[in-house]
UniProtKB/TrEMBL annotation:
InterPro entries: AAA+_ATPase (IPR003593), ABC_transporter-like_ATP-bd (IPR003439), ABC_transporter-like_CS (IPR017871), Metal_Ion_Import_ABC (IPR050153), P-loop_NTPase (IPR027417). GO terms for molecular function: ATP binding. Pfam families: ABC_tran (PF00005). PANTHER family: METAL TRANSPORT SYSTEM ATP-BINDING PROTEIN TM_0124-RELATED (PTHR42734). Residues 4-231 form the ABC transporter domain. Signal peptide: none annotated. Belongs to the ABC transporter superfamily. Keywords: ATP-binding, Nucleotide-binding, Transport. The keyword DNA damage does not apply. Gene3D superfamilies: P-loop containing nucleotide triphosphate hydrolases. This is Metal ABC transporter ATP-binding protein.
Length: 231
């Protein structure tokens, strides 16, 4: 069964048709990017997958179940675009931010399992941020913060990671190593990854598929493929 499946989904706000007849399949092991300019419906698509919006037509399935019946939230790690904007002046350390990802799983705030520290360390190692465990999150660069938020999402041991514009705030020099880290999660930690971005240039060659909303392109040299798309 696919991890995520959208079948002929339509979604419109009062006057705006945000998504029209969108079909998409995300299988185990995929590293998929959805690209599209601002206003093309990427956030709407993410909200449909998260069950925050209901399609007017079509179906959204998670692990073979209609999204409305899917209750195991821990299977899905989500890093929103807003994750790294709320924390300026936020006093929390990297340790506290990552540990807070466990609260989602247990539903209990301030009561963490005995091995919480081990779990935080393992999550930080998987994103290459173990050296920063005691730093205040606000002291880190955009790319480092993004890695910490990914670690927070990973601590509930999801099968799939949804990333909303993860490369915003990452400079060109750090982009390659950021994608290497994602590729490592994908191949060594068996994390299926779906990311959305407006930044075609930021899409790495390590990504296995790119979906341009309505059109799924299987590709190796993505730039050539993209140039062949009709406007
Ligand atoms: P993207 O994430 O690609 O920028 P969105 O999914 O946010 O695209 O938006 C798709 C379209 O739907 C846009 O035209 C946007 O203005 C519109 N839209 C998004 N959210 C709302 C909303 N809550 N009410 C009305 N229109 C909306
Ligand atoms: P995002 O792309 O993360 O949704 P935005 O800044 O585009 O962030 O939108 C912020 C909020 O406003 C979102 O919840 C979105 O659905 C809503 N929104 C976006 N476009 C419109 C619109 N044209 N009319 C009303 N609400 C909108």
């Amino acid at each position: 069964t696919p991890y995520i499946e959208l079948k002929n989904v339509n979604y419109f706000y009062e006057k705006t048709e945000a998504l029209k007849d969108v079909s998409l399949t995300v299988n185990e092991g995929d590293f998929l990017a959805i690209i599209g300019p601002n206003g093309s419906g990427k956030s709407t698509l993410m909200k449909l997958i998260l069950g925050l919006l209901k399609p007017m037509q079509g179906e959204v399935y998670l692990f073979g179940k209609p999204v409305s019946e899917f209750k195991d939230r821990a299977c899905i790690g989500y890093v929103s675009q807003k994750s790294n904007s709320f924390n300026s002046g936020f006093p929390a350390t990297v340790f506290e931010v990552v540990r807070s990802g466990l609260a989602k799983k247990t539903g209990l705030f301030h009561r963490y399992p005995k091995d919480a520290e081990q779990q935080v360390k393992a999550a930080l190692i998987s994103v290459g941020m173990q050296a920063y465990i005691n730093r205040p999150i606000s002291a880190l660069s955009g790319g480092q913060q993004q890695r910490v938020f990914i670690a927070r999402a990973l601590i509930s041991k999801p099968k799939i990671l949804l990333l909303d514009e993860p490369t915003v705030g990452i400079d060109q020099q750090n982009m390659q190593s950021f994608y290497r880290m994602l590729t490592h999660l994908n191949t060594h930690h068996d994390i299926t990854i779906l990311l959305i971005t407006h930044d075609v240039d930021a899409v790495s060659k390590s990504i296995s598929h790119v979906a341009c909303l309505n059109r799924t392109i299987h590709f190796h040299g993505y730039q050539q493929e993209l140039e062949q798309l009709p406007d």
